[in-house]
Amino acid sequence: MKDRLEQATQFVKNADHLLVVSHLHPDGDAVSSTIATALLLRSLGKEVTMANESPIPKKFAFLPEAEQILQPGQVKQKFRYVVALDCADRERMGKCRDLFAEDVRILNLDHHVTNDLYGTVNVVDPDAAATAEILFEWIQHLQIPWNPPLATLIYTGLLTDTGGFRYSNTSPRVLRQAAQLMEVGIEAHVIADLVLETTSMEQLQLLQTALQTLERSDDGIIAWMSLSLDHLRRCSASSEDLDGIVNYARNIIGVDVGILFRETEEQAVKVSLRSRARVNVGAVAQYFGGGGHARAAGCTLHGNLEEARSQVISRIQAELEREGK
């Protein structure tokens, strides 16, 4: 890892002005890693522009400089040097790719096992719980002094991508990093309340609607919910209101795989997958052109809700049969 971090350091040293981007519909790791990288680069004397195609979720508005993450239409130049965070492939950057110069050079920092190593320099660690975990190591490598804003950002990325330090990716290294960040003086309980315990009325209405569609397979191993475009319109829901809803299906006793199917447009269905231990949902998502991790993944299928449900559930059942489970 030290060699790759040094390659990352040399990459940014060659640039004066860098674009920092992450994936569409950013989660806590994506937002906090974007800003933390900007702070890191500025400490090296670099000029930085942060961009994301999607609006930043309201729950992350408390993060320092969150309001400085621009949408592509607000950026008037193209960049030769780009830092891409938490993106398994270039497609995940959306319209931010329009800001790349023809001779673009990309530093790819990520923790997804499905990352296709699209960067000029790739710092990809599938064993890391979050991209923030990799950034922690880079900050240490550069000997950048910790301060509460920087520590808050990295802690938020760790907290959200480990589900509040509850998921199987919560390693001893993650907990040691979290402890060190708390020693800097962050308000860990406040961060947890804002990102894990606070919800909107629209999200609760959407959850109520989703739960009314809850179904289980005959053996009780798979559970799923479905949201149509009409459901989303009636709840006045945004993409951030969907956060965490899939877990209610997975959390049922006896269920290993929880799924949320939601229409994103006519004949397009976004599929969110979560599992406890038995099914590698990252492999299931990859089969359908998506990606993610063994316990959390996603993909998009063409067709209606019924067709998507049939295909995905059949694939999961085939995986269970293949493994003799």
TrEMBL record:
Residues 19-157 form the DDH domain. GO terms for molecular function: nucleic acid binding. It comes from Lihuaxuella thermophila. It comes from the Bacteria. Residues 237-317 form the DHHA1 domain. It holds the Pfam family DHH. This is Phosphoesterase RecJ domain-containing protein. SUPFAM superfamilies: DHH phosphoesterases (SSF64182). InterPro entries: DDH_dom, DHH_sf, DHHA1_dom, Oligoribo/pAp-PDE_c-di-AMP_PDE.
